Amino acid sequence: MRALRTPDERFRDLPGYAFEPHYVDVPSGDDIALRIHYIDEGPRDGEVVLLLHGEPSWAYLYRNVIPVLTAAGLRVIAPDLVGFGRSDKPTEREDYTYQRHVDWMLGFMEAIDLQRVTLFCQDWGGLIGLRLVGEEPHRFERVAAGNTFLPTGDQPMPEAFFAWRTFSQTVPVLPIGFIVKSGCAREVTPEIMAAYDAPFPDESYKSGARAFPALVPASPEDPACEPNRRAWKTLESFERPFVTLFADSDPITRGADRVLQARIPGAKGQEHRTLERTGHFLQEDDGEALGRYLVDFVKRNPPVAAR
Question: What total of structural domains would you count in the chain?
Answer without folding.
Answer: 1
